[in-house]
Write a structure and sequence with these properties.
The protein is α/β, with parallel strands linked by helices and 226 residues long. 42% of the residues lie in helices and 17% in strands. The longest helix is centred in the C-terminal third of the chain and has 14 residues, at 208-221. Bound molecules: magnesium ion (MG) and zinc ion.
């Protein structure tokens, strides 16, 4: 039986070298305000949805242009991403970006590649109030009680396991639940360490050429065809 490969690729700290949300907080918000929220997210005392919402509420909407210019100038795309996007396109692999990041920086950063990315899932921002408000158009379904914000597992479950070979690529806590239900995982940093601890099989990556290599092994190793 042949399955089509579908990739669920994280954005912050995966496609970009660093986490853009943390970078924005470091620059525009005093550490004593944002750091406890981030610590609570990693300690799982605050959900991602509540935490990311609270973080952006620390930024006045009037700083929209400043924040946007900062993140667009600052974000660095990880090495090999362009080749990776082309590879997926040529191999007829479905490439989805699934991110808990925010539309106002994700869409402009991915614009040069957008034509070959099948779909981008992320959160939205509203700058019309006094402070930045985050809107979550993709909440958790009845199978997920993590309160993700943008629920990666809900999207992953939307793809029929009989038809698709599902690969998660990611770096951090937002990718962990997806990694648990994927057919294969390509990981770095926190996600790699946590997969190691939990005994989840994964391939390590430092750049997207590593991801292309990993994909090539999945294509040959499984019965998967495109
Ligand atoms: Mg990430
Ligand atoms: Zn969820």
């Amino acid at each position: 039986m042949s399955k089509q490969i579908v990739i669920f690729c994280d954005f912050d700290g995966t496609i970009t070298e660093k986490d853009n949300i943390i970078d924005i907080m470091r620059t525009f918000v005093p550490e004593e305000q944002w750091k406890p929220i981030v610590d609570d997210i990693f300690a799982k005392k605050t959900s991602l949805r509540t935490g990311v919402y609270a973080l952006f509420q620390l930024i006045p909407s009037i700083r929209r242009k400043e924040v946007t210019d900062f993140v667009l100038n600052r974000a660095r795309i990880r090495e090999g991403f362009g080749d990776f996007v082309n590879y997926c396109h040529e191999q007829n692999i479905q490439l989805l970006v699934t991110s808990n990041g925010i539309d106002f920086f994700i869409h402009p950063i991915l614009a040069p590649y957008a034509e070959k990315i099948n779909r981008i899932y992320c959160n939205q921002s509203d700058f019309s109030g006094e402070n930045v408000e985050i809107i979550y158009p993709r909440p958790c379904d009845e199978h997920c009680d993590v309160d993700c914000g943008m629920c990666k597992t809900t999207i992953i479950r939307g793809y029929d396991s009989n038809r698709y070979f599902k690969i998660v690529i990611g770096d951090s806590i937002t990718d962990l639940e997806g990694a648990k239900i994927a057919d294969a995982v390509i990981a770095r940093d926190y996600l790699a360490d946590t997969c190691e601890e939990l005994g989840i099989d994964y391939q390590a990556f430092a750049n997207f050429h590593d991801c292309i290599e990993a994909l090539a092994t999945f294509i040959t190793r499984t019965e998967v065809t495109q």
